Amino acid sequence: MVPYVKDKLLLNDSEIGALLLFLGVGAIVMMPATGWLISRIGSRRVILLATIIIAVTLPSLLLMDSPVRMGMMLFLFGAGIGSVDVAMNAHGVQVQNLSGKPVMSSLHGLFSVGGLLGPVLVLFLLKMDFQPVTSLLMLSVLLVLIVSGQSGNLMSFRTEKEVIRQYSSGKAEEKQKPASWLSTRVLFLGTMCFIVFLSEGAVLDWSAIFLRDYKGMDEAFLALGYAAFSIAMAFMRLIGDRLVSRMHSRKVILAGSLAAASGFLVLIATPWIASALLGFVLIGLGAANIVPVFFSEAGQIKNVPGTAALAAVTTIGYAGQLAGPALLGVIAEETSLSVALGFTGALMLVVALSHLSEKRNPG
Question: Is the confidence at residue 75, as pLDDT, over 90?
Answer without folding.
Answer: yes
